[in-house]
Amino acid sequence: MKRKSGNSIKFLSVLIIIMGIIIVFQAVRISSLKNRLKGLTILDWHENSLQIENGLEFEDQAILITPEFVDNGFQHHSPFNDEHTFAELKEQYLRYGEFDLYGSGRRTGDIRRIHEGVDLYVPENTPVYPIFPVGIVTAVSDDPDFVFQTHGFRGNTRIDSVGVEYGKIVSILYPEGISSLYAHLNEVYVEPGQFVTSDTVVGLTGYTGNIRNSGKPSHLHIELRDEDNESFDPMNRLHYHFASLRKFVVNLKNEGVISTD
User: Fold this and answer.
1) What pTM does this model have?
2) Can you tell me the distance from the alpha carbon of 183 to that of 218, in angstroms, rounded to the nearest whole number?
3) CATH for 76-238?
4) Who's near 246: CB < 8 A, 6+ residues apart?
5) Whole-angstrom Cα distance, residue 94 to residue 72?
6) Domain-wise residue ranges, the chain
7) pLDDT grade, residue 260 (50/70/90)?
8) What pLDDT score does 38 carry?
C-alpha cells in the first residue's frame, strides 16, 4: 500500500513539474506576443481623422498591410511588361491622336457616349500582362462578339444599357480597388477568380469586337474602372509610378507622432 502511495506522489510531482513548465512557456509566449502587438503601428480612419494605435490598443478586426506591400503593390507597369511608362506608351502607340484617348466622342445609334479607355496600336498577338504586381481576374469573355454594357446619353437622359462590342476581354481587380479592362483580344489565357502577377500573360492583343467594322487595325483597348465600375481617364492614375507609404510612416516617426519605444 505504501509503494502504491509513493508512486502516486511521484506521478503528481512529475505532473506538477510539467504543468509548471507549460505555464512558464505560455507566460513567455504571451509576453512575446504582447511585445509584437505593441510593435505594430496601425493607421486607421475614424470620424474624419487619422487614428494611430498599436496592436494592443486596436480592438476592431482589420487587414494589416505593410508599407512594403503598398509601395510595391501600387506601382503600375506597362501592360506589355516592358520598361515603358504610360506616357511613353501613348507617345509610341497612339495612331489617331486625341481620338485614341479617354473621353473622345463615340456614338451607338442615337446615343452619345465617350471612349472609355486608351487605344494602343501594338502588333497583333502581343502578350498582355496585369498593370500592377498582383491582382484577381474578375471577368473574362472568350467570345469575339462579346457585347459590354456601358452608359451613354440620349439628349440629357443617361442610358445605362448601351451595348458596345468589346470582343474578347479580361478584367483584373487590383489591391488599390481599381480594375483594368482589356478589350479586342485574340486570345484569353485566364479564368475568373484566378490570382495573377505582373509576369502572368493574361491574353494576346487582337482584332475582335467592333474594330472589325471600324477600319482600324488591331490594337489593345485598355480602360480603368473604379469600385462602382465607372471608367475614368487612365492618366488620372497611371501618370504616377511610385507610391510611398514608408516615406509617410518614417516621417510620422521622425516627428514623434509614432513612438519608437
Assistant:
1) 0.84
2) 11
3) 2.70.70.10
4) 67, 68, 70, 71
5) 28
6) 1-37, 76-238
7) low
8) 82
Tell me if 102 sits within 8 A of 234, measured CB to CB.
yes
pLDDT digits (tens, 9 = 90+) for 177-211: 999 999 999 999 999 999 999 999 999 999 999 99
Maximum CA extent, the chain: 104
Residues 221-233 pLDDT 10s: 999 999 999 999 9
Residue 174 in grid coordinates: 487590383
- pLDDT of 94 over the 90 cut: yes
* The C-alpha cell that represents 153 in the structure block: 446619353
Taking CA atoms, 190 is separated from 40, 138, 240, in Å, by 37, 10, 28
- DSSP letter (8 states) at residue 92: H
Q: How far apart are CA 212 and CA 198, in angstroms?
A: 29
Distance CA 13, CA 19 (A): 10
- CB neighbours of residue 241 within 10 Å: 11
Residue 154 cell numbers, joined: 440620349
Q: Mind giving me the DSSP string for 242-254? A: ---HHHHHHHHHH
User: Which is higher by pLDDT, 231 or 38?
Assistant: 231
**3-class SS of residue 172:** strand
| Contact by Cβ (8 Å): 167, 214 | no
Contact 120, 222 (CB under 8 A): yes
> Using the 8-state DSSP alphabet, how is residue 120 labeled?
E
Report how far residue 181's alpha carbon sits from residue 165's, in angstroms, rounded to the nearest whole number.
Answer: 13
Expressed in percent and rounded to 5, the helix, strand and coil fractions of the chain are: 30, 30, 40
